[in-house]
Amino acid sequence: MIPSIHKQGTSTAGLIAYLYGPGRSEEHTDPHLVASFDGLAPDPGRDPNATEKDLQQLLDEPLCLRTADTRPDKHVWHASVRAAPGDRTLTDAEWADIAHRVIAATGIDPGDGAGCRWAAIRHADEHIHLIATLVREDGRKPNHHRSGQRAQTECRSIEADYDLHRVAPGDGTGAKRPTSAERHKAQRRGRDRTAREELRETVRRAAAGTASETEFFDRLASAGLLIHRRIAPSGDALGYTVALPEDRNKDGAPVHYSGSKLAPDLSLPRLRERWTGAPTQPPSVRASTPASARLDATGAIWQAVLFIDQADDGTVAAQIAAAGEVLDALAKTSAAHTRRQLNQAATVFERAARSHVRAERGHDRALRQAARDLIHSGPALGRGEDGATTAMLIDMAFFFAVAVAAWHAKRNHAQQAVAALQAAEHLRVAYRAAAAQPMAVLRQQGQRLAPHVRQRQAGFVHQALPELAESVLAEPGWHALAATLADAESVGHDPTALLAEATSRRELDTATSISDVLVWRLRRSANLPTIPRTPHDPAARGSRRNPLPAPAMELTAKAASDSARRL
Q1: How do beta strands 237-243 and 127-136 pair?
Q2: Maximal C-alpha separation, the chain
Q3: How many C-beta atoms lie closer than 10 Å to residue 180's C-beta?
Q4: Structural domains of the chain in order of their starting residue, each with its CATH number
Q5: What tens digit of pLDDT does each residue of 242-276 get?
Q6: Collapsing DSSP states into helix, strand and coil, what is residue 511?
Q7: Cα(431)–Cα(391) distance, rounded to whole angstroms?
Q8: How many CB atoms lie within 10 A of CB 382?
């Protein structure tokens, strides 16, 4: 059950005409009254003797109790209450009860016998509209402060009483939703998203891994946005607004949004906290290619996993926010076959990155640097990135997102926990796309192993994973795991010990493919190339390809296993 409090208006007649009219963005079907302040209000939808003017005059009568100069400039209160997708169709009687409860909770008509006059109108199966006049029967103004929050709280109770979908309660830290006018405007122009949503994503991506205001505003300009900066007499920027060149108002002027109106953490003061609290350095030589930047990012994400279980809340909040920058950078530089899911993962994870826990910047430098390196290394396609390092990074990002969901859930951050899990699901799908080619190469290598070598690797699996061995050996990815175990053994590692360490980091019962998970864990922990070169490849004779950096290797020790196992 989703309530929305709309902007206050000046015309009761105009709103009634819209509610009983055909609709502008969606068809209004059988508009009719389901409830009112006294249960006797005229219904111009179903009573042929009632008119819209009759209803308007009845609702506006209390305005006469105040002199013209003391009447509210905007006296029309408007809200809507919408059932969640998948909920059953409610009856008129049920919607009437819901209307009474929401109206009482918001303070419009608290039940003291002198509340505001109101009506509830239904013109679709899944929602109702509430209209009220903001003058009580006793001539006073209603106490409807924080009516949106009050309505949300009451709707959580309504969901329980009516056995409806339970919407995760908010905490006021989410980004402002597009208004109905913004949504209608986007629909008229055939756009999937509103200008506000497009700008939020563009600004968020521009901020990922930035080192200064200059770089941030340069990126905004490169993205084609119209930028206006508010400048103090000292010459310092106080804030900024952005607009899409094609988004204009009725007078033809660009529609600007301030950073804070896009999202709380996109205001200039909050962005400055990133630059001063966790400054980034110029991209390293090692991170000059997409593959190496992804490997470094994998190590940084693993460090963040350790922080989640061991650090204070402010430090963890900073890690989560900075990880959002990594996801933005990864989505921006990803290949086409993973881009859509990575974009969606980054978009929904944004909600998980904001809570009432204030981020304490400083310990998130590694993640912010990883985001910066990903951006500066550029798009992966055609630049030596074979998909394996992307798959490895997505695999670790999935692990991190699940850990974030658990962290938020323990603190009753319901919306953030849901968002983190949604991001994890998008990452799961992106992983499958990214891993398809490199896993196919590893499977082919495993299939070319001599039968006695594969049997030897199977023995290691039985020894280390006696309860899961048969399942692992039956998976399509088994041959890739056999190739990985053979590679590890060839460079001096004990495959049984590696498997034991890999399985201690997190339970495997929920893994879609246990062998896939083990492949990437082993290749990280054994410092193996993401995809081995063939003996005929000249590059294979000189050095390993895409080795995991030493700092990341140090963080895959047993110290992280307790945290990971609990997820």
Answers
A1: unpaired
A2: 96
A3: 14
A4: 2-162 (3.30.930), 180-263 (no CATH)
A5: 999 999 998 999 999 999 999 999 999 999 999 98
A6: coil
A7: 5
A8: 8
